[in-house]
């Protein structure tokens, strides 16, 4: 893994120092922004590999900065920090565009696990971009997706999906480990003409699981993230 450029946006000095200390274990070069204005300037000035973003800041807050970063064409993983778990519940309900969330105070192993997963995603995306071809074939453990032919095999057995089920599966498989809430899935997979009913997502996921999962009650590909939404399993979670 090459060295990673990480922007830490945190106005509390001791927490910023703690983050910087532990990020160095991951071969990261850390830059700290201690208020929202500095974060906006630095955040948009460079191509970061990871941004760790505190929600409450002097100047523009974490939500504003997150949205600004998401308007950029290049995707950057964002880990958002919140002051307490009640605030976390509120924030994940908003469509912030953050990839993951952590409530303060957090344990170091928890922080390390989040950072590791997000940095692994950066590597995976880089590999995917390099391998982006029209005859694209995605292979995730026992699942094979032939993108152009819109065909799907699970453990060597072809499964028949509707157009929407296929789009949903492809979207998930292209973003392993990333958590999406139902609103984000409606926007990304159904597009802007969706009916806005989140139960539409649930029912499609149930039908998709019935087709691609051996045991839909214990899915290995499309996992439920309680209180937030769904994610596609990362390789280490596949059994
Ligand atoms: Ca703060």
Nutshell version of this structure?
The chain has 239 residues and is α/β, with parallel strands linked by helices. It contains eight helices and twelve strands.
Shape: globular
Share of residues in strands: 15-25%
Largest sheet, in brief, is: 5 strands, parallel
The structure class reads: alpha/beta
Helical stretch tally = 8
Distance between the termini: 25 Å
Poorly predicted runs are: none
Task: Please give the share of residues in helix.
Answer: 40-55%
* Radius of gyration using CA atoms only: 19 Å
Task: Give the topology string: H per helix, E per strand.
Answer: EHEHEHEHEHEEEEHEHHEE
Number of beta strands: 12
The mean pLDDT is 86
Spatial order of the strands forming the largest sheet? 2-1-3-4-5
Q: Catalogue the ligands.
A: calcium ion
Molecular structure report:
- The model has no long low-confidence stretch (mean pLDDT 86).
- α2 (36-45) runs parallel beside α3, α6 (163-173) packs across α8 (198-212) and α7 packs across α8 (198-212).
- The chain has helices spanning 13-23, 36-45, 62-70, 85-93, 108-130, 163-173, 182-190, 198-212, and strands at residues 4-9, 28-33, 50-54, 78-82, 100-103, 137-140, 143-146, 151-154, 157-159, 179-181, 222-225, 229-232.
- It has a 5-stranded parallel sheet with strand order 2-1-3-4-5, sandwiched between helices. The chain has a 4-stranded antiparallel sheet with strand order 6-7-8-9, with helices on one face.
- It is built from 8 helices and 12 strands.
- The radius of gyration is 19 Å and the shape is globular.
- It has 239 residues and is of the alpha/beta class.
- The structure holds calcium ion (CA).
- The site of calcium ion has 5 residues, from loops.
């Amino acid at each position: 893994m090459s060295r990673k450029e990480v922007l830490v946006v945190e106005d509390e000095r001791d927490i910023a120092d703690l983050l910087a200390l532990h990020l160095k274990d991951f071969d990261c070069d850390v830059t700290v922004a201690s208020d929202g204005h500095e974060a906006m300037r630095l955040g948009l000035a460079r191509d970061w590999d990871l941004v760790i973003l505190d929600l409450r800041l002097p100047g523009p807050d974490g939500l504003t900065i997150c949205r600004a970063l998401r308007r950029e064409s290049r995707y950057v993983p964002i880990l958002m920090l919140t002051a307490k778990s009640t605030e976390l519940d509120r924030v994940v309900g908003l469509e912030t565009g953050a990839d993951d969330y952590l409530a303060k105070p957090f344990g170091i192993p928890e922080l390390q696990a989040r950072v590791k997963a997000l940095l692994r995603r950066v590597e995976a995306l880089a590999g995917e971009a390099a391998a982006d071809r029209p005859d694209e074939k995605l292979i995730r453990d026992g699942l094979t997706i032939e993108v152009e032919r819109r065909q799907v095999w699970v453990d060597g057995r072809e499964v028949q999906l509707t157009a929407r089920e296929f789009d949903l599966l492809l979207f998930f498989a292209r973003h392993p480990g990333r958590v999406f809430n139902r609103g984000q899935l409606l926007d990304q997979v159904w597009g802007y003409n969706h009916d806005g009913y989140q139960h539409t997502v649930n029912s499609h996921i149930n039908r998709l699981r019935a087709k691609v999962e051996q045991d839909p009650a214990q899915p290995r590909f499309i996992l439920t993230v309680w209180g937030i939404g769904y994610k596609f399993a990362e390789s280490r979670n596949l059994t």
